[in-house]
Amino acid sequence: MKIAIAGASGFVGEALIASIASKHEVIALTRSLGSNNSQHYKCVEWRSCDLFSLLQTERALQGADIAIYLVHSMLPTARLMQSTFEDADLLLADNFARAAQKVNLKRIIYLGGLIPEKKKLSKHLASRLEVETALAGHGTPVTTLRAGMILGPKGSSFEMLYTLVHRLPVMICPKWTRSLTQCIDFRDVIGLIEFCVENPKTTGGQFDIGGPDVQTYQQLMRDMANVMQVKRRFYFVPYFTPGLSRLWVQLITGASKNLVSPLVQSLRHEMVVRNPALLILYGKPLIDLKTSLRDCLKEVKPSLRQATFNRVSLLSQTNTVRSIQRLPLSAGNDAAGIAKEYFRWLPKFLHPFILVEHSNDFRWIFRFVGMKKALLVLEFSKSRSAPDRQLFYIKSGVLVEKNQPSHSRLEFHQALGGKCMIAAIHDFKPALPWIVYKWTQALIHLWVMKKFKAHLECEG
Q1: For the segment 175-192, what is each residue's pLDDT rounded down to a tens digit?
Q2: What DSSP designation does 286 have?
């Protein structure tokens, strides 16, 4: 069986590859083949793939029987990322589902998050649930494993827990520390994923997974301190807000705000197993909490602060922009209709300063009034477009850097079975000096998209 792993360079992905590479053919998907990971597993085929590109995703999944989806886009992927993580995750999942349908993938196995009974979910957990829906949105069966905190020496959640206990002799415990959680060891996660790969009966199921121990987050930190053999004092403070918690965790651990903020917002929920059907079917005892903590501590090497610095440094080397906005989609409308309305509405909205011309060769040309040179030239891709997805390549213009990537593009993309629309710009390189672009053109784009959203809401 040939298995594609999206998110192969993450800590769960690496462990999964090490476990299944001797049993199955593996296609490991990664953004950059320059990673050292490509040298570790000679029997694994590494494929470079930007999952924001539907074309690259289709090519990357060619030949696979099953795909394992371990992707979570909480961190930025461009120097300027104008997007919430929810909208980015939705676009990625919908792209993956479209590509899976295109290459006739048999099924997708998705590692998501435990969903509590409360109707009002945090943005993070609501997004995890939305990704489930999007992955199944184009007909490929999806098996979902819903997990809480995954304990592993290279996992960001475990490292944050370790760093807090290691560095703070006195722990201020806000209200969320009394919420229940049911952690699971990463080795058990790998075992359960492999079990689903080998058992087609799990196809289409939604399963909760968690270890044998249920405790509060405060007790989890106490257990960590006991395993580390350090004395820590814990004081409950009922009025410590999520915002202060985020700043506290970010300061102590060095983790990115993009990573910490959504996770802290989710800590108010009870993250425990409610549907143990897969655990019962699996039938094997899972690793208890103290054993898991003890084993993780043997290998943990805190790297969040350095990883945050490295990511910022890497993204700042190239002036790339990714901008993703969610738009309303009225009943009976589609991406083709939204794109048509955008190019009809935009010249009226920008009048009398900017003209938008439509040429016969599927090009849209933006100019200042009285100016001959084009500010921006977009070219419609007929071959890569469909009624539910409209693609326009950014070709040239005064506002476009001369060495613009050929795949720089604007797209209108239907998602969630036509319930919403996503407008996105990918891999754009501005010609303006970065600081000028960031505080002028970039803000104008957001303003225009906000007004277009309001226009669609009024029309709908």
Answers
A1: 888 899 999 999 999 999
A2: P
Rounded distance, CA 426 to CA 436, Å?
Answer: 20
The pTM of this model reads 0.94
pLDDT tens, residue by residue, 270-309: 999 999 999 999 999 999 999 999 999 999 888 788 888 8
**Per-residue CA distances from 379 to 300, 335, 371, 400 (Å):** 50, 16, 20, 14
Q: Which residues pair with 66 in a beta bridge?
A: 3, 107
* CATH 3.40.50.720 for domain 2-314: yes
**Selecting from 3.30.530.20, 3.10.450.50, 3.40.30.10, 3.40.640.10, what CATH number does the domain 319-459 have?**
3.30.530.20
Tell me the C-alpha distance between 455 and 460, whole Å: 9
**From CA 230, how far away is CA 169, in angstroms rounded?**
9
Computed from CA positions of residues 345, 351, 356, 358, in that sequence, does the dihedral angle turn out positive or negative?
positive
DSSP letters of 137-195? TTS--EEEEEESPEE-TT-HHHHHHHHHHHH-SEEEE-GGGGSEE--EEHHHHHHHHHH
